[in-house]
């Protein structure tokens, strides 16, 4: 709906979240609030629901033409909807009560964090599987920048890996910022140059973690690319990383090979238990 100033305010879903969803297990807790696994009563779909405490004060200085919910994470996730990126966790709807903003998000399964995934598969992943994961991580970072969003907290704990398909989802936009100069809250904006630097350095750290823990050997030229990312040399952009020769080997056949190797790895784990 529109506010009195003429800007679009993305309103919460009506009613109580507890009337539409049945809460299950805790998925995580922190300074941001807590996340619970839940079931949507209408169709029994599993979702993740984040309860984020409301700030003590809410900025009411809306600017015409801006999507603004009063919660920056909701705003940023709404910005990622059009067009939707398959590598970004999707916000399905949101609610609010007296104390919390409540985000209802898709829950991919079976999945685990990238950190847990590479730890459990230490040194046993094929290059093809690692390439598939890395390409998606970089594409997720690119999609954020293309949507005017700086995620601000890309690390292996904020990336989910589907352990069957190897598809990834970037989660948790709680530290994110809007790229640009104007926004209802200037503290929630960041320049394009700074957003790129933060994003590329974060991606570099993740890529280093993935290749060093998941592979026994890494091409020297790709290690050099990781170093450029971590130190933000040559002012790289996500699309520049995707053009690296080692990553360009990623293809449909490469993807299928990666899935096959991962299935073999899972089968080996089960047989050894």
From TrEMBL:
The protein's name: non-specific serine/threonine protein kinase
Family per similarity comment: Belongs to the protein kinase superfamily. CAMK Ser/Thr protein kinase family. PIM subfamily.
GO biological process, one term: regulation of mitotic cell cycle
Start and end residues of each Protein kinase domain: 21-273
Entry EC number(s): 2.7.11.1
UniProt-recorded Gene Ontology molecular function terms: ATP binding; protein serine/threonine kinase activity
Organism: Onychostoma macrolepis
Gene Ontology cellular component annotations, sorted alphabetically: cytoplasm
Reaction equations catalysed: L-seryl-[protein] + ATP = O-phospho-L-seryl-[protein] + ADP + H(+); L-threonyl-[protein] + ATP = O-phospho-L-threonyl-[protein] + ADP + H(+)
Alphabetical UniProt keywords: ATP-binding, Kinase, Nucleotide-binding, Serine/threonine-protein kinase, Transferase
Residues bound to ATP: 50
Region Disordered, residue ranges: 252-273
SMART domains: S_TKc
């Amino acid at each position: 709906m529109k506010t009195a100033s003429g800007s679009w305010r993305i309103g919460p879903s009506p009613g109580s979240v507890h009337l539409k969803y049945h809460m299950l297990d805790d998925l995580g807790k922190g300074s941001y609030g807590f996340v619970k696994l839940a079931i949507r009563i209408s169709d029994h779909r599993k979702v993740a629901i984040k309860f984020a405490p409301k700030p003590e004060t809410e900025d009411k200085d809306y600017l015409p033409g801006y999507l603004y919910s009063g919660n920056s994470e909701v705003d940023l996730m709404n910005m990622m909807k059009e067009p939707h990126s398959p590598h970004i966790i999707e916000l399905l709807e949101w609610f609010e009560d007296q104390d919390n903003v409540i985000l209802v998000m898709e829950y991919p399964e079976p999945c685990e964090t990238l950190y847990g995934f590479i730890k459990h598969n230490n040194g046993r992943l094929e290059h093809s599987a690692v390439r598939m994961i890395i390409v998606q991580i970089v594409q997720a970072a690119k999609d954020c920048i293309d949507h005017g969003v700086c995620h601000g907290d890309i690390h292996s704990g904020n990336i989910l890996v589907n352990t069957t398909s190897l598809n990834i989802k970037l989660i948790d936009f709680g530290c994110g910022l809007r790229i640009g100069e104007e926004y209802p809250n200037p503290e929630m904006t960041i320049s394009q140059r700074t957003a790129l630097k933060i994003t590329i350095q974060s991606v570099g750290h993740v890529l280093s973690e993935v290749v060093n823990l998941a592979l026994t050997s890494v091409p020297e030229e790709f290690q050099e690319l990781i170093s450029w990312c971590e130190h933000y040399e040559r002012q790289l952009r996500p699309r520049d990383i995707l053009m690296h020769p080692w990553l360009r080997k990623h293809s449909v056949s490469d993807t299928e090979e990666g899935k096959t190797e991962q299935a073999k790895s899972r089968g080996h784990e089960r047989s050894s238990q």
